[in-house]
Amino acid sequence: MQIPIFDGHNDSLHRLSPYTPEAVESFFTQHTEGHVDFPRARTGGLAGGFFAVFIPSASSTIVPPPMEVIITETGYEVPLAPALDRATALAATLAMAAGLFRLEAAAGGQLKVVRTTAELASYLEQGVFAAILHFEGAEAIDPQLDALEVFYQAGLRSLGLVWSRPNHFGHGVPFRFPHTPDIGPGLTDAGRALVRACNTLGILLDVSHLNEQGFWDLASLTQAPIVATHSAVHAICPTTRNLTDKQLDAIRDSDGMVGVNFEVSALRPDGYDEPDTPLTVLVRHIDYLVERLGIDRVGFGSDFDGATMPHELSDAAGLPTLLVELQQHGYDTQSLRKLCFENWLRVLQRTWKS
Ligand code: ZN
User: Fold this and answer.
1) Which CATH number is 228's domain given?
2) What confidence score (pLDDT) does residue 81 get?
3) Does residue 66 come out as left (phi exceeding 0), alpha (psi in the -120 to 50 range) or beta?
């Protein structure tokens, strides 16, 4: 099945850092650790995706798990990570964004950073690996939004206002299970200004790590489709990181989309971080999203290199297993093309300015 797969979220930039020449080279060599390298992407039909600049909180080992998890009677709680200071965040962001540009430079034309939807469409067509520069949290951006302008010119096309911690713009959702995402305050005035600025520039706004109040604050303000790059269904797996039916309806009404997260603890009804999780559980989320949002508003948002994957989909090379599973479950080629890349392209065409 030769359908290119464009993916809503990976943490490969974080996994590869710091960007020594060896680290850059390692991306182009096949490995067994981690989930994404260039050879495994080719094997699995992974044609590109959103490359997140993720900055771990200095005091913890947030990614990859284990996080500081407190087991409760019914599930777990992760203490909200502390805010980052902007100087630290800016330095780390520059280092990781530079890492992506170094990968591009080393790729000999086989990997390119995408700035327009015409580029994305043509790279998918030509088989050039297409990378979107995404920030998972806006800590590196100053309240005057000067850095936003500069990062936009450099190639930033997607931004999550927050990761799961507070910052100047809003409050990330703490990881908790079982719990609703309605936990904590919403966007600040600076956060609202950032939403407006992203709308003006044509930067996609990702709601994946917002709490519910932040989600509604953004939803009431944004003029773009509402997008969750890597989230799943709260009705199936009641973690704070997943989307309630009401949130899904708002995403549908905005003609946005959800990239379904493959992280097992975001999929399993019991919330366990257990890789021995059948793909049928992931398919159940995809079915639910398709039913609620329509086949035009669902895609993949793997969280490769940032989360525990199901055994059967243990890295990018395993993606064909998922497509076969979906095909056997009744998804025809036209539907699979939408899930694999057409929906991402459509939403970006409605969001970016070019
Ligand atoms: Zn994330």
Assistant:
1) 3.20.20.140
2) 87
3) beta
Gap from CA of 80 to ligand 1 centroid (Å): 14
d(CA 8, CA 133): 11
Task: State the distance from the centre of ligand 1 to the C-alpha of 230, rounded, in angstroms.
Answer: 7
Distance in Å, CA 347 to ligand 1 centroid: 20
**How many domains does the structure of the chain reveal?**
1
Mean pLDDT per 10-residue section of the chain, whose length is 354 residues: 93 94 95 95 98 80 59 90 92 96 98 98 98 98 98 98 96 95 97 98 98 98 98 98 98 98 98 97 98 98 97 97 98 98 98 96
Is residue 328 within 8 Å of residue 58, measured between CB atoms? no
Tell me the residue range of the domain where 92 lies: 5-351
